[in-house]
Amino acid sequence: MSVTLFSLGLALALGLLVGVERGWQERAAAEGSRIAGIRTFGLIGLLGGLWQLLAREAGEILLAVAFLAFVVLMVISHIAEARVSKDYGVTTLIAALITFVLGALAIRGHHVIAAMGAVVTTILLSLKPLLHSWLQRIEAAELAAALKLLLVSVVILPVLPNQGYGPWQALNPYEIWWLVVLMATISFAAYCAVKVAGAEKGILLTGFLGGSVSSTAVTIHLARLAGTVKQQRIFAAGVLVASATMFIRVLLVATIVNHELFRPLSVPLLLMAFIVFGFAAFYSVRQRGRTAIGPLKLRNPVELLQATQFGALLAFVLLLTKAIQAWLGHTGIYILAGISGLADVDAITISLSRMAGTDLPLQVSALGVMLTTMVNTIAKSLLVMFIGGRTMGLQVAWPLTVSLVVGAIASWQVLC
């Protein structure tokens, strides 16, 4: 009995939770003009729970009939309300149906699932203005590109052969395309964040979000701007934030591809990120105030052409890594990692992570990832020195040098 009463109370509480949000959103509406408010939603949750109780005795078919009858009732109410208000949105109608189901789940004993469902539903309902503002910032071409890549991934990926081809069986079409989708997803999430937040809102935000897509692109962008203004310290802070974000991105990608790399890479990469973030914070406090900048130009990472190009680059690096290993051994891997870091860290990071623990010792793969990350960091320092000038170059080079020394020491302690 006590369990049943608790479940009924939970069903009522979950309905009231959803009802609070719906009632607040429509608080300006006249009494009785809304299809459902806080009291109604509470009763809907309780109704779903009571019908589930009756269904225990009479059979599950009773709950299905009750839900169908409730759907008909809500649809009729919605049509009647829409004729008067001219508002044809069905959000409240769908929320009411979900609340009924949540009440039934609570009586079935799925208390955690029902509570989670109610919380998620309430949050989604409350995010309407924010989600709509985000959608307004996403352009049609970007949405179309994302949908095309999603279609190609869902349709093509399952039918790609999951076996190695070519020399050393290095080219696995399924794995290569899966890795392309992985990188495109990570980059597109950050790319959308830049579009939604707006790069012009602040240099540090630009550095963090843009660095999740391409820290090199952010570095070049900010270095060019710093050459025309006196506030070079805050632009240097933005470059440092992008570089620190790159360390975290490398750790994330390597861990997703091969979780065994998290332990050897986490200490040096997180230490490096912490140091560089610290210097960026120091620069921003010294500068004071937020400097607005123009929009950051980033290429859409889920354009089919760009995704295909990255897939071709990844296949080439995978094949080259196998060849270098066969010809030159571990020394060749380190040379390749260093050369690759001059241009891009993603492809070689994925290649080394994929081979870690099987074709390559874990230690060699981790050292290769650290080496390519460090070389890329040095390359960005030189870019800032060349583009932004000596003053900004030194402001960036000093913190990055400290982080590289600490990262090298940490890597030696962990990996050697």
Provide a concise account of the structure shown.
The protein is built from 15 helices and no strands. The chain has 416 residues and is mainly alpha-helical. It has two domains: 2-126, no CATH class; 139-415, no CATH class.
General description of the model:
The protein has 416 residues and is an all-alpha fold. The chain folds into 2 domains: 2-126, no CATH class; 139-415, no CATH class. The chain has 15 helices and no strands.
Topology diagram in text:
Blueprint: H1 2-25, H2 38-58, H3 60-85, H4 91-108, H5 111-126, H6 128-137, H7 140-156, H8 173-197, H9 203-226, H10 232-257, H11 262-287, H12 304-341, H13 346-355, H14 362-388, H15 390-415
* Count of beta strands: 0
- How would you classify the helix and strand content by structural class? mainly alpha
Counted up, domains total: 2
Give the distance, in angstroms, between the N- and C-terminal Cα atoms: 63 Å
Q: What best-fitting shape do the alpha-carbon axes yield?
A: elongated
Could you tell me the radius of gyration in angstroms? 28 Å
Helix percentage range: over 70%
Quote the average pLDDT.
80
Q: How many H/I helices?
A: 15
Beta-strand fraction estimate = under 5%
Q: How is the main sheet built?
A: none
Element-level helix/strand string:
HHHHHHHHHHHHHHH
Poorly predicted regions: none
What tags apply to this protein structure?
mainly alpha; single chain; 15 helices; 416 residues; 2 domains
